[in-house]
Design goal:
two-stranded antiparallel sheet, 8 helices, 4% strand, 173 residues, 2 domains, mainly alpha, 75% helix
């Protein structure tokens, strides 16, 4: 799975160089320019972190790739820990949600309505998806057990909802 993690790292690095968004002036911005403008905006106006905490968290998820780059630079093939796998899954879900939300609403520094037109965002999300997939695969015993328990709990919840709905129909008549 080291090769998948290296590919994810390559995708993340290429997302920094790929066109990612349009500025308000209409110029194409590369991924690193979008990240630097977000960091600059946060440093200039720290109150933005209160208004847009998910964007701040999404920006911070890039630190997971920096950690992964350090891990890949060290010799030896160590599997990702369960904690790392859970962080990566949460980061992937957070980033997809932030991109989806901001692509549908106007925002400040970048014209995020045009966000989905450029390959940088897709490369960035694909890098997270590959890294999270690698982490889940390396911890597949845990996630297999978790998914079977979630399926059982979902069936119980569906049965309870169906029973309550049936009782409501019977009582309402």
């Amino acid at each position: 799975m080291v090769h998948v993690r290296r590919l994810a790292m390559l995708l993340w690095l290429s997302s920094l160089l790929a066109p990612t968004a349009l500025s308000h002036r209409g110029d194409q911005q590369r991924g690193y320019e979008v990240a630097l403008s977000a960091i600059g905006g946060l440093l200039a106006f720290p109150a933005v972190a209160i208004a847009l905490p998910l964007v701040l968290l999404s920006l911070a998820t890039n630190a997971l790739f920096i950690v992964e780059g350090v891990r890949l630079a060290r010799p030896g093939d160590r599997a990702l820990s369960l904690r790392h796998a859970i962080f990566l899954l949460c980061a992937l879900l957070l980033n997809v949600g932030v991109v989806w939300f901001h692509a549908s609403t106007p925002s400040g520094l970048v014209n995020l309505l045009a966000l989905l037109q450029f390959p940088g965002v897709y490369l960035w999300l694909l890098g997270f998806a590959l890294l999270a997939t690698s982490a889940v695969y390396e911890q597949r015993v845990f996630f297999t057990g978790l998914s079977s328990r979630l399926a059982l709990v979902s069936l119980v919840a569906a049965a309870v909802v169906a029973a309550v709905f049936g009782i409501m129909l019977l009582v309402h008549r």
